[in-house]
Amino acid sequence: MTTRGEFSSRIGFILAASGSAVGLGNIWGFPTQVASNGGGAFVLMYLILAFVLAYPVLMAELLIGRATKSNVVDALGQVSRGMSGRFVGAWGIATVSLILAFYGIVGGWMLAHTFEALVSLAGFDGLANWLITFSLSRNLLFCAVFMLLTVGIVSGGVVNGIERWSVRLMPTLFIIMLVLFGYVMTQDGAIDGLKVYLLPDFTQILNPDLLISAMGQAFFSMSLGVGTMLIYGSYVSHSENLPRLGVAVSLVDIGVAVLAGLLIIPAMYVALNNGVQIFGDNGQLLSEDTLIFTVLPSLFTTMGFVGGIVAFAFFLLMSIAALTSSISMLEVPVSYVVEKRNVARQKAVWLIAAVIFALSCLIIFNFDTLFGFIIALTTRYSQPLLGLMLCLFAGWIWRRNDILQELKKGDAQAENSFFWRIWPWYVKFVCPLVIVVMFYRSL
């Protein structure tokens, strides 16, 4: 039997779990959603829904993980006392592997743009152009580099790999964001963007489309439903107070998303001030890939030499965010193979990464057909349904007394806590209902 790893410190777990939650969804997705959904109104509803919906589901994953101390298949099998849990666990592994297959491609783009900023500063214009031009060779090469970085970290194990690098990468991410925010706010036009971002249009707050988008963003930004938080929970000591750890992870995740918006929305208005087009034909702010790969690089170009340095810092930030998420995704199938098949960790990591990279190659070679399809299949359909299953297991199938005993290991007074008075019925009735409504509306 393989000995399981365990996080050596509270801060190590918080930064690793936050790193898993903080991905391109926060730094690319959140500002994009703000831009397309009425600015401050979206921010306000996101903040509310992150705690109303995402935190209870996060706690279900952490509790199941720590109680079972197992990979996702065995953990859900134990909680459900049958095959249904094992099937959902296997479904989670398949989903997270597909997510990592397209995520590796996007992470590769971020790395390519990071190198492009350096190469441009050095004056190698031909190479710089190749690095930012969409091509088969560039996509394959940088997807491979991104996967190798992920493999390097995960093969080190829980303490020497995931925890060690999370403790380095997450503070770096915060520092880069704060420095970039400070710089952007000195530029003309930034205050206009700040107003759009911070001042809610209260007439928009109950707009169903805005609510669905905010709910989806809160759910996906914490990487819920696919087992990453369950696995990280299984590496937490029984002596820790889990509800408090969950709050800390949620706050870091939300903080990064809000900070990303504070950086990117004002940067778009700085770009507008510098003559860059930031509105589409429909009058909406440009979003997603257009924003990250067209609007912001155009802005950096208008800044001259300093723009090159800002571009490097920005895409380095994006690369770190992608990497902290990809390591948690790879850990989900790895933990299963290591524990169930008794394969050595190094071998398991390389084997699974090779399979996922092969899937990435398949997507790259059939990009127009598969890229958008895989993203919709996993994030729009599979993830909410997996989140729903987790709520059903935690709320309806797992014995209530077993959950309380698990909570008491880290807090002897858990029975009298505010968390215990609300969470069990909340995750039983409210979360499933909200997820079903969100899923139905998204169809």
From TrEMBL:
<dbReference type="Pfam" id="PF00209">
    <property type="entry name" value="SNF"/>
</dbReference>
<feature type="transmembrane region" description="Helical">
    <location>
        <begin position="169"/>
        <end position="190"/>
    </location>
</feature>
<dbReference type="InterPro" id="IPR037272">
    <property type="entry name" value="SNS_sf"/>
</dbReference>
<dbReference type="InterPro" id="IPR047218">
    <property type="entry name" value="YocR/YhdH-like"/>
</dbReference>
<feature type="transmembrane region" description="Helical">
    <location>
        <begin position="381"/>
        <end position="398"/>
    </location>
</feature>
<keyword id="KW-0472">Membrane</keyword>
<keyword id="KW-0813">Transport</keyword>
<dbReference type="InterPro" id="IPR000175">
    <property type="entry name" value="Na/ntran_symport"/>
</dbReference>
<feature type="transmembrane region" description="Helical">
    <location>
        <begin position="139"/>
        <end position="162"/>
    </location>
</feature>
<feature type="transmembrane region" description="Helical">
    <location>
        <begin position="245"/>
        <end position="271"/>
    </location>
</feature>
<protein>
    <submittedName>
        <fullName>Sodium-dependent transporter</fullName>
    </submittedName>
</protein>
<feature type="transmembrane region" description="Helical">
    <location>
        <begin position="43"/>
        <end position="64"/>
    </location>
</feature>
<feature type="transmembrane region" description="Helical">
    <location>
        <begin position="418"/>
        <end position="440"/>
    </location>
</feature>
<feature type="transmembrane region" description="Helical">
    <location>
        <begin position="210"/>
        <end position="233"/>
    </location>
</feature>
<keyword id="KW-0812">Transmembrane</keyword>
<feature type="transmembrane region" description="Helical">
    <location>
        <begin position="349"/>
        <end position="375"/>
    </location>
</feature>
<feature type="transmembrane region" description="Helical">
    <location>
        <begin position="85"/>
        <end position="111"/>
    </location>
</feature>
<feature type="transmembrane region" description="Helical">
    <location>
        <begin position="291"/>
        <end position="317"/>
    </location>
</feature>
<feature type="transmembrane region" description="Helical">
    <location>
        <begin position="12"/>
        <end position="31"/>
    </location>
</feature>
<keyword id="KW-1133">Transmembrane helix</keyword>
